[in-house]
Please model this.
Amino acid sequence: MLNRRRFLMSTAAAGAAGFAALHLSPAFAQDAPQIQIFVPAAPGGGWDQTARTMDQVLRSEKLISGSQITNVGGAGGTVGLPQFISQWNGKGNSLMVAGMVMVGAIIANKSANNLTEVTPIARLTGEFEALVVPAASPFKTAADFVAALKADPTKVPVAGGSAGGSDHILFGLIAKTAGVPAANLSYVPFAGGGEALSALLGNQVAAGISGFGEFSEQVKAGALRLLAISADKRQEGIDAPTLKEVGIDVELFNWRGVFAPPGVSDADKAAMITLVETMAKSDAWATECKNRNWTQILLTGDDYAKFLAEDTTRIEAILKDLGLA
Amino acid sequence: METLGHLAHGFSVAFTPVNLMWCLIGTTLGTAIGVLPGLGPALTIALLLPITYQVAPEASFILFAGIYYGAMYGGSTTSILLNTPGESATIVTALEGNRMARSGRGGAALATSAIGSFVAGTLGTLGVAFLAPVVVKFALSFGPAEYFSLMVLAFITVSAVLGSSSVRGLTSLFVGFVIGMIGVDLQTGQPRFTFGMSQLLDGVDVIVVAVGLFAVGETLYMASRRYAGKDEIVPLRGSLYMTAAEWARSWKAWLRGALLGFPIGALPAGGAEIPTFLSYAIEKKLSNHKEEFGTVGAIEGVAGPEAANNASAAGVLVPMLTLGLPTSATAAIMLSAFQSYGINPGPMLFMTQANLVWGLIASLFIANIILVILNLPLIGLWVRLLKIPAPQLYAGILVFATVGTYGISQSPTDLVILYLLGGAGFLMRRFDFPTAPVIIGMILWPLAEAQFRRAMTISNGDWSVFYKHPLSLTLLTLAFIGLVGPHIWAYVERRRRRGPEHVPGDA
Model:
């Protein structure tokens, strides 16, 4: 049964949604700070869910009294980023959610701003990718797939997300490692995970690459066969080798993290890192990550900045090979 | 009848007082956001996602389903009364619905859309309950080649709405193609027609175009004619609801609309727009009152597309519940709500979450009943809007259109686009170019292009995929018959009537 406060909270949220595209969490009178979270994407996607889950966990752990989430969507985050840089400059209690998709979008869209202009706080989660084939496919192992790709890449159409996204990037990296020229690949981009999945289930394509969570239920049901995952090591409960194990030296997480605006003080930056780190180590966060198939890959401050630089270089190189940058 | 047992169990879940309350809140909220342009069901459900931390899964899905169906009902209200569609699925409703409202039959247009939504929504929900496993098999047999052929068929069919002059109609259609191409090309990741503006990289929202061309363009046109002619809007003529003749014209259109909407909605790349176009074109072809289309407004042209749009909303739930495939923005967000309960939607959902799935289906039936009860009395209130004198009414429409467009993505760029298109809409109206083909072009072109290129990528450049797949060949044949059939028919008719000695070239 519902108790009264829960009911009031939810109807308050319902009311708020009718008036504005902002979600104001109910604030409780406490000493903990209020924070603002900037999401450079429309409500509902991965970054938005990250922000809303952070809000939920930070409040339940009493680390903040509430948060305000602002969504400015468009073009893989490159519409929101300039706004975060110019209008949120120096705001110490603010965070922006971003990730690997934005790195790719900045390069592909030749965006004027990039992530070196904001302050890296923490890399939080990642979703590793999966290489799958329809159950009826002749490919039994990742080696079969790579062999066919080497023989004639044009005969192996692979479905995934939009051109230049993480799925396409992983396909490019696999091909590059196998010595297949990226320009010859037959990549079939779909707008949403659902459409790519239906192309696989309908045997329209030879294989599919996308976030593991997109395929996990179909793999469990036996409709798709999982050939390999792009994680760094074997995952508990997943009966498939990593790409590295099958001789393809590629590791890829579609990572998501948070950034502070440019121009924040060192004290504010340190406080934000502590806040996010405390959250990431809480049980509530661990539970949420498990429910959503997010792998925790926490990396903070300077280590995060170093990782970001390396990943940008890697993505830029592969996008060039794929003819997208 | 295993399904009936499940359904009965579903009703026992949905009929608890708490769940009925969520259904009522959902449908009311859904109707409200449907009426408000700019706030669609996807955005609303996304904003309400945090509710999943507070209530049981059944309750939140019943709420979301209510919002989803409610928005489909509410969206038609503004289309009919103000020519301002709030959702892309109700754009076609504006074509005849607004004509009817101006000629004093706004009440009938609203009634046929509410009752048609009820009929089609109920049929669609029955389809979800009983036919889901069959329909999903059919849906999966659609590959890129089949989709492309379906688009060809759609192009041929909707040529019926091009208007009296095919040159003007085709011009509008091609303008639509160009608008549809704006943004990053999905296949190559390259920007097209964006002029270096990052705000255009995601393309132009079809609602912005529809509201700009229909509402803003029309308002400017009315303002320019203010002193040239009389007021065009007749507040109300005849009965508030439908007359017997209007019932007779509506019910077949509802059934045809539902039959088109449900299967196309269930296709992973089907969507709600295409069945509304097809339904409109078919109703126009079959109607005995063709002279009413585009003049005083034909009720079939409202009844069919409205039914198609609600049946397709039910169709979208088929791949979502049977396979875990989100095929619309709203379905994608509902799926992410499943995940926050730790439920992974997939092929096993019907078995592992029977309570939830059947409770949801049962609540859809209840939502439909609540919605029709909620919407019919509102009609009396809505038609009073039309009694507002024209200058104030049109000023209000302009404000409404502006606020709604800003609401979609809080983007000032969208407002600029809205008014540029409003100006274009005015000129098109002034020089008698139809505006509906622009919308049809911008929706169909990107789909047709993407599916064509996917089909060609998969086949490695081999054209035969389009005629070697039986389903694709069937669709193309239908399209061909649709293209040449009427001409041959007309020729045969002429020969028969006039005999062999008729003057050649007399057409």
